[in-house]
Backbone:
């Protein structure tokens, strides 16, 4: 009986102590959003930690859309985004009094990938990609031979981003012409790693995600070159930067809450670090770095905080 | 086992032998699977079973990654969960077993309820915790308190059930003797029955907590799948746990992360084995044979 | 406790308080259940205001977040059922076989080896099973050893490993049921000249049938509610196909996957998640009630 009392007292004491003592506003930076950008921000966090070991950075991957929902509710300090913020989302932010700054952190060559054993699809036109992914193809386009008659009759297995993903929004806008328009009978996920796994597992598989995921897994999957009318162009750092890899070249952003900067000085320190060391960070995470102009613009944006 | 076995060849008809071999086969399959599972995990994860696993945080570069935040998260979250649920679970079991009028409808309903709760899918407890945190006003659900709450609710029915079994095993004579000597019911319960049942209660509780250590589904809903590079330091801190870390690393396609997942799995299994061993030790050493 | 009237009639003062505390602890469980029902049903009802229940339960296209959205939950239910069926077809023969062996044939020495195997299998966390299914089982066993045309994610992989996970459940409850059959029945059978196999099959198993049924039903409940194995190994594509080599999404898989994305309170995604959760809870509730009934039947029989 006494033991019971003591345990209960200890428990209450612990709870109270822990409850009261934590005010993580100073040392914790909460980041969420795109799973494309997450590895980059995580790398930034790792490098930042070397000079600031007391600051705790946590990076979630709810997808660009999911991340914005949290960001605009004030739950996160920074949102990773692989597309620009939508007007509806900006409106919600404004409603909740969240003022933000958009900062480009890297370029991306959104890569279309196929299985290693896929020897036929080395280059696809934008039209063919549309055939594969448009809403009308749901249930009807199920074989590679329907994409191009010279392709073998291999079942088409599709993996891609889920609807909370900025990659999804960007890809559907660029390929299908309308953001969010896509067939639904594929394996959707907010975690691009799952797409890599899926594509590397079946001969007829096809998927899409950010360039860094391809670079990390070149031994498992092949990238498809994209022909948008000017010949086949493969994803690469140069192609992303000089504009030849269309329509799938895009900038990647972080959105920083001005409110968060006010509440926590470390947020600004982190963002400054991110912007000033962009080259080192993108090199570490295998992302496509910013051009000089983009860097200057990012610096200017960060100064607004 | 009966001693009336017919010693003639009647026992060894072909059909009977086939039957017996099928039984052996099912045993063999289960044992083989166990060996393959442990073996493949050990072989895969061997290279990362070193100090780094404990001291390094998760990292985008696999060579530098470790499970430090996850291990500490597990320890912290499960300890708080145990503090929440063990006292309440034991108290509830004491009431139901020693004081409740078993013919009372409401008490029977509570019993049925607890039996049902023990078989509810784990993920539902995550959803319940989401709802509770929402009502309590927490917009950010990835907090240690949330994880502990989910695990505590999940494990409570199991603790109640095993504690009741333990109490039931104490012979009525103990209670009768105590009452005969003039003790009240409460004195009897807390000074005679409960102490007698403690070894079994301890065993059951340890096993229930092992279950909590291995659970991942409810925590997924709380956003515990997050990249964290710090030690959790309070009830409102962000957290991740070892099973969730294994889940995250399993999903990563790079070979090195798979190795890490295997190593972390071995670590988790080792922790659980130790806890099971502890429970069995307590049971063997302290259990009283009535 | 109420049988003894030897309790003193005057209770000490603190006793009522202590009883009250203990009662509240017990009543807490009811609060938890009410909490579960409330937290699931409120968003589920909000969901059903948007989506008619007939469309939800009978529709065959599950695309809740796409434009245009479809909310037919059948693909998820089929995914759950299919993985459950595969899991049971592995777990029941193995589990029952082990139970029969332990109860009818095993010597004391054998038991010492077998029991730990079962307990070990029971103690492995489901996420480790899931990792094993995704990695070793799919890559090595299915692809290399059996050369099956299977992708990274398949119902077969998840279902099979889930079956192994359920073996301890089925084995231990079935063994209890078989043990509960009185020796008299066996001895009578032997006396009439039957051998052990005949006795087991014709006398013991039928006598223990409701307990074995309870074991299987509990196994079904665990399979239906399992999340980690299917999340890792079965894939994310809602699929009504019955081909076990393809991937599929189960109800639990959908909940886990959706939770990794956006789960804002009040949004359509949140409500959809909870609608599926409510369906899952009701399904397992039904299965559990059946199981409890069966257990009561077999415990009372003797």
Residues:
């Amino acid at each position: 009986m006494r033991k019971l009392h003591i345990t209960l007292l200890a428990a209450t004491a612990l709870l109270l102590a822990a409850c009261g003592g934590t005010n993580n506003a100073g040392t914790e930076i909460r980041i969420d959003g795109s799973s494309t950008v997450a590895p980059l921000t995580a790398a930034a966090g790792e490098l930042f930690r070397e000079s600031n070991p007391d600051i705790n950075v946590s990076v979630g991957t709810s997808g660009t859309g999911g991340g914005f929902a949290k960001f605009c509710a004030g739950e996160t300090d920074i949102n990773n985004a692989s597309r620009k913020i939508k007007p509806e989302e900006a409106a919600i932010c404004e409603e909740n009094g969240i003022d933000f700054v958009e900062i480009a952190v890297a370029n991306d060559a959104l890569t279309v990938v196929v299985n290693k054993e896929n020897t036929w699809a080395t280059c696809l036109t934008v039209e063919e990609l549309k055939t594969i992914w448009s809403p009308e193809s749901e249930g009807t386009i199920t074989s590679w031979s329907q994409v191009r008659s010279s392709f073998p009759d291999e079942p088409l297995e599709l993996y891609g981003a889920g609807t909370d993903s900025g990659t999804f929004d960007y890809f559907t806008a660029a390929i299908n012409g309308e953001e969010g328009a896509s067939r639904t009978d594929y394996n959707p996920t907010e975690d691009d790693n799952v797409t890599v796994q899926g594509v590397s597992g079946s001969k007829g598989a096809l998927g899409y995600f950010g360039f860094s995921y391809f670079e990390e897994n070149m031994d498992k999957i092949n990238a498809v070159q994209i022909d948008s009318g000017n010949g086949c162009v493969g994803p690469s750092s140069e192609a992303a930067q000089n504009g030849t890899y269309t329509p799938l070249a895009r900038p990647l952003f972080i959105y920083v809450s001005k409110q968060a900067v006010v509440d926590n000085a470390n947020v600004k320190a982190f963002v400054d670090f991110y912007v000033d060391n962009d080259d080192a960070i993108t090199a570490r995470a295998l992302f496509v770095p910013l051009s000089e102009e983009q860097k200057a613009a990012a610096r200017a944006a960060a100064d607004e905080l | 086992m009966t001693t009336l076995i017919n010693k003639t060849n009647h026992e060894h008809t072909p059909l009977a032998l086939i039957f017996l071999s099928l039984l052996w086969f099912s045993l063999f399959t289960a044992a083989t699977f166990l060996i393959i599972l442990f073996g493949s995990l050990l072989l895969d994860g061997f290279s990362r079973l070193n100090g780094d696993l404990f001291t390094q945080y998760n990292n985008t570069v696999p060579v530098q990654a470790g499970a430090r935040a996850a291990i500490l998260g597990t320890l912290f979250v499960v300890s708080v969960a145990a503090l929440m649920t063990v006292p309440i679970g034991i108290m509830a079991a004491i009431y139901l077993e020693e004081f409740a009028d078993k013919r009372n409808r409401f008490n029977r309903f509570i019993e049925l309820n607890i039996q049902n709760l023990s078989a509810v899918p784990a993920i539902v407890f995550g959803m319940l915790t989401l709802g509770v945190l929402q009502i309590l006003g927490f917009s950010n659900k990835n907090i240690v308190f949330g994880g502990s709450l989910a695990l505590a609710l999940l494990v409570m029915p199991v603790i109640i059930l095993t504690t009741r079994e333990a109490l039931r095993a104490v012979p009525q004579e103990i209670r009768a003797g105590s009452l005969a000597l003039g003790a009240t019911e409460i004195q009897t319960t807390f000074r005679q029955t409960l102490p007698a049942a403690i070894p079994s209660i301890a065993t059951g509780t340890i096993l229930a907590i092992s279950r909590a250590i291995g659970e991942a589904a409810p925590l997924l809903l709380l956003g515990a799948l997050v990249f964290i590079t710090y030690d959790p330091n309070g009830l409102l801190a962000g957290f991740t746990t070892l099973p969730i870390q294994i889940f995250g690393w399993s999903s990563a396609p790079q070979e090195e992360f798979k190795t890490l997942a295997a190593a972390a799995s071995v670590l988790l299994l080792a922790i659980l084995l130790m806890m099971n061993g502890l429970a069995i030790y307590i049971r063997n050493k302290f259990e009283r044979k009535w | 406790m109420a049988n003894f009237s030897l309790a003193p009639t005057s209770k000490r003062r603190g006793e009522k308080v202590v009883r009250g505390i203990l009662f509240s602890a017990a009543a807490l469980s009811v609060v938890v259940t009410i909490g579960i029902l409330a937290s699931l049903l409120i968003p589920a009802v909000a969901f059903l205001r948007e989506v008619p229940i007939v469309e939800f339960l009978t529709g065959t296209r599950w695309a809740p977040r796409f434009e245009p959205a479809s909310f037919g939950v059948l693909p998820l239910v089929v995914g759950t059922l299919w993985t459950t069926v595969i899991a049971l077809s592995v777990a029941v023969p193995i589990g029952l076989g082990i139970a029969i062996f332990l109860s009818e044939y095993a010597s004391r020495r054998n038991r010492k080896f077998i029991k730990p195997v079962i307990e070990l299998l029971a103690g492995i966390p489901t996420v480790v099973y899931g990792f094993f299914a995704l990695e070793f089982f799919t890559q090595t066993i299915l692809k290399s050893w059996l050369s099956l045309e299977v992708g990274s994610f398949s119902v077969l992989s998840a279902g099979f490993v889930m079956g192994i996970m359920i073996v301890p459940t089925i084995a231990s409850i079935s063994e209890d049921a078989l043990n509960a059959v009185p020796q008299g029945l066996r001895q009578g059978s032997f006396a009439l000249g039957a051998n052990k196999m005949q006795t087991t099959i014709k006398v013991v198993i039928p006598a223990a049938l409701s307990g074995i049924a309870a074991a299987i039903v509990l196994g079904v409940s665990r399979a239906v509610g399992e999340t980690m194995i299917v999340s890792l190994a079965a894939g994310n594509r809602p699929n009504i196909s019955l081909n076990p080599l393809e991937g599929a999404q189960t109800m639990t898989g959908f909940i886990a996957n959706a939770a990794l994305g956006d789960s804002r309170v009040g949004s359509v995604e949140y409500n959809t998640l909870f609608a599926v959760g409510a369906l899952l809870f009701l399904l397992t509730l039904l299965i559990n009630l059946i199981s409890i009934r069966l257990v009561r039947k077999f415990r009372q029989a003797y």
Remarks:
- The beta strands of chain B are 227-228.
- DSSP finds eleven helices and one strand in chain B.
- The mean pLDDT of chain B is 89.
- Chain B touches chain C through 98 residues (CB under 8 Å).
